[in-house]
Amino acid sequence: MDWGARRASAAVAGAVLLGTAAGSVAPARADDASRVLTIIRRVVDLHAGKEVSRTTTAGNKIDINLSSDVLFGFGKAELSPGAQQTLKLAVDQLGKAKGGTVHVDGYTDAKGSHGVNQPLSSQRAKAVAGALGALVGSGFHFQVAGHGAADPVAPNTLPDGSDSPMGRALNRRVGVSFQR
Q1: 36 vs 57: CA distance, rounded Å
Q2: Dist CA 62 CA 175 (whole Å)
Q3: Residue 62 falls inside a structural domain
Q4: Is residue 164 assigned to a domain?
Q5: For 154, what's the count of Cα atoms within 13 Å in the CB-facing half-sphere?
Q6: Mean pLDDT of 88-110
Q7: Of 13, 43, 69, 118, which is the most buried if we count CB atoms within 10 A?
Q8: What is the DSSP letter of 28?
Q9: Is 37 inside a domain boundary?
Q10: Count of alpha carbons within 13 Å of 7, Cβ hemisphere only?
């Protein structure tokens, strides 16, 4: 299946998972004066069953979460051979901006110590910023930060205290955010 077909299939699969029609926009409340619309786009690798990226657009801000499992090997900060396709998803979104500051934030799961996770998250963010900078050219300034296991987007453990591999996978990510 070519990449375009995979993206289209992933959009439909993401819409089904989110319970919305593909390409739909979350309805704004009638009493909401700002009328901010939020659009969420998920890209799922249908062969591996992993979320590759999640893009959230709210007003003029675009947030992209890229899965570290797709970008890097376990415990590594060097981009994997398959990372370029995932990074191109971010480049497509960056094309909507005319330049400016791009924040790149690395995160890990809660496995391992802070002494390992903090530098790993920083190194991964730097690797993504470097690759994106090479792909988008001039006009963008990249601010890089590593956060280790801080700010999880999912629980690392289940309510009974056992490990949550799915939650940890969602927490291993590199966030890219910017204004359009």
Answers
A1: 10
A2: 10
A3: yes
A4: yes
A5: 16
A6: 90
A7: 43
A8: P
A9: no
A10: 12
The boundaries of the domain holding residue 56 are 51-179
Structural Rg of the chain based on CA atoms: 17
How many angstroms separate the CA atoms of 178 and 57, rounded? 10
Distance CA 48, CA 44 (A): 8
151 DSSP assignment: S
Model confidence at 11: pLDDT above 60? no
For 175, the token pair is 């966030």
CA distance 126 to 146: 9
Structure tokens at 98: 């005319």
Helix (H, G, I), strand (E, B) or coil at 90: helix
CATH at residue 131: 3.30.1330.60
Min mean pLDDT across 36-40, 118-122, 168-172 is at 36-40
pTM over 0.90: no
Q: Which residues contact 87 (CB under 8 A, 6 or more apart)?
A: 66, 71, 79, 128, 131, 132, 135
- Average model confidence (pLDDT) across the chain: 77
Tell me if 35 is assigned to some domain: no
Overall domain count for the chain: 1
Integer Cα distance of 119 and 29 in angstroms: 42
